[in-house]
C-alpha cells in the first residue's frame, strides 16, 4: 500500500477505492488503519500534477473524510483534464530519403516542409508546392504565376479559401 501510485490509466476515484479496499482487507486481519492515515497514504500516492491540490489540503486545519477526499480528487482530476491543451496530430516528413516507388528522381528532403516549425518552435518556414523552394508558398510563387499565364488560367487571390459566395 505504501508503494501504490496513481498512474492515470484509470480514474482517480477507482484508485482511491482500490486503496480503501486494501485498508479494509488490512482491517480484516486486525491491522486497523485510521481514516486520517488512509487519507494521508492516498494523498502521497497522487502524482506531481496534483501538487497544488496537495498543498491546499495541507494548509487546511480540518482533515477530510474519505467521501470528501473522493469528491475533491475527482473534481481536481476534471480540472486537470480541461486545463491540459489538446494537440493536433500532424504528419511530418522525416529528413530521410523519400520513397517514391521508383518513379521520378530520388531527392533527399531538406527538412523544410509546409508548416514545419523551425528549431525555435515559433517561426514557420514554408516550402512552395510548385517550385519546392523554401521561403514562400505557391500563391506567391513567380514560377507558378508564369505557368498559370502560359496555360491561360487567370490567377485568383481567393482561390482555395473555401466556398464562393454567389
How would you describe this structure to a colleague?
- The structure is a single chain.
- The protein is mostly helical and 166 residues long.
- It starts with 11 loop residues before the first helix and ends in a 15-residue tail after the last helix.
- It has 2 domains: 12-83, no CATH class; 88-166, no CATH class.
- It is built from 5 helices and 2 strands; from the N terminus they run H-H-H-H-E-E-H.
Write a concise keyword list for the protein shown above:
Znf_CCHC_sf; 2 domains; metal-binding; 5 helices; two-stranded antiparallel ribbon; rod-shaped
Q: Number of domains in the coordinates?
A: 2
End-to-end distance: 69 Å
Strand arrangement across the biggest beta sheet: 1-2
Low-confidence stretches: 113-118
Task: Give me the count of strands.
Answer: 2
Shape type: rod-shaped
Percent of residues in beta strands? under 5%
Radius of gyration: 29 Å
Mean pLDDT: 76
Structural class: mainly alpha
User: The biggest beta sheet, please?
Assistant: 2 strands, antiparallel
- Helices and strands, in order, run as HHHHEEH
- Please bin the fraction of helical residues: 25-40%
Number of helices: 5
Keywords: Metal-binding, Zinc, Zinc-finger
Biased composition (Basic residues): 97-106
Region (Disordered): 84-118
Domain CCHC-type: 127-143
Q: What topology emerges from the helices and strands here?
A:
Elements: H1 12-28, H2 35-45, H3 51-59, H4 66-83, E1 116-117, E2 124-125, H5 142-151
Antiparallel strand pairs: 1-2
